[in-house]
Amino acid sequence: MTHSEARRLLRAELANCGECRVVLDRSALRDLEPDGVFDSLLHGFLGKRSEQWRTRHSRYPVTLYGLAPPPEAQFLNLPTQEVARLCVIEGRAGDRFDTGAALRELRTLSDGDRALVLGDVVDGILEDEG
After folding, report:
1. Three-class SS state of 67
2. pTM of the predicted protein model
3. Under DSSP, is residue 39 helix (H, G, I), strand (E, B) or coil?
4. Which of 20, 36, 93, 101 registers the highest number of CB atoms within 10 A of its CB?
5. 129: pLDDT confidence band, cut at 50, 70 and 90?
């Protein structure tokens, strides 16, 4: 992840700092620009999940939702499933991500739905962390 606020949000989550997380969540939920906080988190989520879910038969470009095993996709909240349908994994090795359509969709979501997506994204990035 390239954005410093995104990295701070993940550190706050790992430190179980509720106050920090509220402030940093608010920042992420407002910054839906390309290369912004939420975009940086989306890239981290895409990198982690695509690495976990790809197989030797995976072909790119593919949406994250298309790559997800059905049981895994069902664990995502419905707004996150919609956003995952718009996140495109590209490149010969599946190492480039297009989040433009997903960011546009996030702007149309209610604050509550956007917060659900943020929660899923953060949980997905930190799933294997202490």
Report:
1. helix
2. 0.94
3. helix
4. 36
5. confident
Show the tokens assigned to 27.
């920042």
Average pLDDT across the chain, whole number: 94
Cα 55 to Cα 32, 47, 51, 60, 67, distances in angstroms: 31, 14, 9, 11, 9
β-bridge mates for residue 42, sequence order: none
Other CB atoms within 10 Å distance of the CB of residue 4: 10
Whose tokens are 């997800």? That residue is 68
What pairs with residue 96 in β-bridges? Answer: 90
Left (φ > 0), alpha (ψ -120 to 50) or beta: where does 98 sit?
Answer: beta
pLDDT exceeds cutoff 80 at 62: yes
b/e per residue, 78-111, with b = 16+ CB within 10 A?
ebbbbbbbbbbbeeeebeebebeebbebbeebee
Contacts of 62 (CB under 8 A, 6+ apart): 88, 89, 94
Which amino acid belongs to residue 129? E
For residue 77, give the nearest of 123, 24, 27, 130 by alpha carbon: 123
How far apart are the two ends of the chain, measured CA to CA in Å?
19
